[in-house]
Design a protein that fits this description.
By secondary structure, the protein is mainly alpha-helical. The protein has 2 domains: about 55 residues, no CATH class; about 180 residues, Up-down Bundle (Rhomboid-like fold). The longest helix is centred in the middle third of the chain and has 26 residues. It is rod-shaped, with a radius of gyration of 34 Å. The protein is built from 7 helices and 6 strands, in the order ββββαβαααβααα.
Length: about 250
């Protein structure tokens, strides 16, 4: 061994030993776990220099963007319905004057769009507004104001379209109004989005019982409110759930 090779000092006995041994030959103390690999360089054996590994770039999945803006779409739906109810109560005109859906539907197709915002009962509006305030705001934070507005309008109008079709098929003359389908659609969309976020994550939890209770209350509203329709509610919920699932799939594929 050359003198330059005796460059390792044993911490136990203080002797200089070869850098290519794992134990001190004088005291037997352990110097390292394994001996370094040798390579021939300029006719002499030297320890191989460790090669630097390039960092492996792994594309990370981008988290779902959470908007910090206020839920303008949800507020617009709730406040718009409340203002319409106040005006209807103050004028004393029937709900048909303020956009309620009357069956059989003849040519007033625009009522499919206005009926989800028409109410004659404060309690009915309160239940729907609470459901929207809890779940539609969560949807809006994930999807944004514009998509949430389109989603709520689709849930309400398509629900009214289904309710009107069933009533026309049965030959019933009735008035259908209110946003129970819109609210259930928000619940279903929020559940689909939240479940996709919590999938496979132990620390991600959500209140499943609360979701079920909110859905049951909205579906049961026609038992207490004559103008609420169960088909409008169920179809609106189905539209919201499908929209939430589609959004989750599109986000996961990005």
């Amino acid at each position: 061994m050359s003198e330059t090779e005796l460059s390792v000092i044993c911490k136990n006995c203080g002797s200089e030993v070869s850098p290519y041994v794992t134990e001190c030959p004088y005291c037997g103390a352990r110097l390292r776990k394994r001996a370094p690999k040798l390579e021939r360089r300029d006719g002499a054996l030297e320890a191989q220099r460790p090669r630097r590994r390039r960092p492996r770039l792994i594309p990370r999945r981008r988290p779902r963007a959470i908007s910090a803006d206020r839920p303008y779409a949800t507020l617009a739906v709730i406040l718009g319905s409340a203002i319409l109810l106040i005006v209807q109560k103050a004028s004393g005109d029937p709900i048909a004057t303020f956009g309620g859906l009357i069956t059989p539907v003849e040519g007033d197709w625009w009522r499919y769009l206005t009926a989800p915002f028409a109410y004659v009962d404060v309690g009915y509006l309160f239940v729907v507004a609470v459901g929207l305030a809890i779940f539609a705001t969560g949807v809006e934070r994930r999807l944004g104001t514009g998509p949430t507005a389109v989603l709520l309008l689709a849930c309400g109008s398509l629900g009214m379209l289904a309710a009107g079709g069933v009533a026309n098929a049965q030959g019933e003359i009735t008035v259908i109004a209110g946003g129970n389908g819109m609210a259930l659609g928000a619940v279903a969309a929020w559940f689909a989005l939240r479940r996709a976020e919590a999938h496979g994550a132990i620390d991600e939890e959500y209140d499943l019982v609360g979701v079920i209770v909110a859905a049951v209350v909205l579906i049961a509203l026609p038992l207490f409110v004559p103008i609420a329709d169960v088909f409008a509610c169920l179809v609106g919920g189905a539209v919201g759930g499908l929209a939430g699932l589609l959004s989750s799939v599109l986000h996961s594929s990005e």
